[in-house]
């Protein structure tokens, strides 16, 4: 049963081939047997999952089931989940049990899904490798010596290993698309504001966006049908109608205009990755699409702009963790200042501290205009680059990452780690949607094709990705780890 996609799982449940309880028990058993090697989960909610599975089976027996009723999923440990420890991968929140559900969690529960637990992640979503987690690094199922990508690496690894058919992630600078690429699964970063951020613990509020991670575009469409939509509790949520993302999956691609940003195919791109992307483009040409080169001239400024804006917002958002209201608290503080200093020094990891310090500096008097304001001006130029490109083409395509997954511990220098997000960060700065789909391998490790669209073009991206997956089998490949432990 662990081989089934989310779509196949839903069909099997609907046909009565398997019950939600049977499926949940099977996957909980796999997690118990295998996750010690992967470390993809922080918290497994077995009792709650079985209770939810029983409720789903009762709904189905009454004829009240929806498309996702009884389908097992996992949640990145950044989504508040009532009564469940919600840590954000940090010692700071190791003892925090959320008193309410995030909107995404509410919607998934309303759709009848069964959450098996909370997945591991880079601390406060800060990282590109899932090595900054307080709970230890996650391993890539394709090669246990490799990183799964970050920050949603736990979700990506769990899906790739067949521990769960789908999971929720978040994407601030590529944290859904990059781990999806490294782990050979499909991951969608929606338009900013398309999915509510209420109850999603903030890293950088103008960049964070939740989205689905699964084996196929068809699976991601099912999840988007459940989670997308306006939320009055989130001031950044967009009041806009939600289409049925599954309806347009089979639309033909004849006449589709694809743009290849020349900045995404230059120095730094591994040869094998570039070749895999070019092969994927040929598949689209065979489906009737046309291809042309385009330019995103401010691409080189994306990383410096991001690493001013995101740390600045993180500095503000993480100031709430002071040992007073919730989370970690140092022992026997001598006064209020000692409480603040030792609580934050003990509770945050090195990468989080680094970004807080950078952000606090860029927001300080005398530096705000020189750094933060200038970065926001650059952000506007990057946004305009995409708007100009979409005047000429329907979608943009390129690699999701410059290399396949790198080895654990290989990126000691923070800057070299930041450069892994060179092809993903600009999309968050512009607020547009993007999806990564499996498109080949390099030295046995997966390669991801990134497809980008204009604002609220998720249905088109899912259609384009689905048609590619109907013509290829990269998304059907499974790591030996999953096969050997069937």
Number of beta strands: 11
How far apart the termini lie comes to 9 Å
Question: How large, in whole angstroms, is the Cα Rg?
Answer: 21 Å
The tally of helices reads 16
Largest sheet data: 11 strands, mixed
Low-confidence stretches: none
Strand content: 5-15%
Indicate the structural class: alpha/beta
SSE pattern, N- to C-terminal: HHEHEHEHEHEEHEHEHHHHEHHEEHH
Helix content: 25-40%
What global shape is seen?
globular
Q: Report mean pLDDT, rounded to a whole number.
A: 97
What does this structure look like?
The mean pLDDT is 97. By secondary structure, the protein is α/β, with parallel strands linked by helices. Helix 9 (302-317) packs across helix 11 (350-363). It contains 16 helices and eleven strands. The longest helix has 22 residues, at 368-389.
Features:
486 residues; alpha/beta; eleven-stranded mixed beta sheet; 11 strands
A few lines on this structure:
The protein has helices at residues 6-15, 20-38, 46-61, 103-110, 153-160, 177-183, 217-227, 271-286, 302-317, 336-347, 350-363, 368-389, 414-418, 425-430, 458-471, 480-484, and strands at 41-44, 72-76, 114-119, 166-170, 186-189, 210-214, 257-261, 290-294, 395-399, 434-442, 445-452. It is built from 16 helices and 11 strands. The mean pLDDT is 97.
What is the strand and helix layout of this fold?
Blueprint: H1 6-15, H2 20-38, E1 41-44, H3 46-61, E2 72-76, H4 103-110, E3 114-119, H5 153-160, E4 166-170, H6 177-183, E5 186-189, E6 210-214, H7 217-227, E7 257-261, H8 271-286, E8 290-294, H9 302-317, H10 336-347, H11 350-363, H12 368-389, E9 395-399, H13 414-418, H14 425-430, E10 434-442, E11 445-452, H15 458-471, H16 480-484
Parallel strand pairs: 2-3, 2-4, 7-8, 7-9
Antiparallel strand pairs: 1-3, 4-6, 5-6, 5-10, 9-11, 10-11
Helix pairs in contact: 2-3, 5-6, 7-15, 9-11, 9-12
